[in-house]
Design goal:
Strand content: under 5%
Mean pLDDT: 86
Structural class: mainly alpha
Number of domains: 1
Shape: globular
Distance between the termini: 22 Å
Radius of gyration: 12 Å
């Protein structure tokens, strides 16, 4: 991921949604490069990131979180 300096816009959007769902501090006004930098940090440990995503309980997402996505 680090080698992808400037990913396609939809990759950044996907990363932003994942970060919102996982409770990371991301604002709708954050610039794409700032969002991508945070996403790379979050995915820095791929095993931990994948485990977090795999065990995420999507059945209990609060509406306020969905509204941010």
């Amino acid at each position: 991921m680090k080698s992808m300096g400037s990913p396609p816009a939809m990759v950044v959007v996907t990363a932003k949604v994942i970060m919102i769902l996982l409770g990371e501090k991301v604002s709708a006004n954050d610039a794409e490069d700032k969002v991508w930098k945070k996403a790379v940090q979050m995915m820095n440990n791929p095993d931990k990131f994948l485990q977090t995503v795999k065990t995420y309980n999507g059945d209990t997402i609060d509406q306020s979180i969905l509204d941010q996505c």
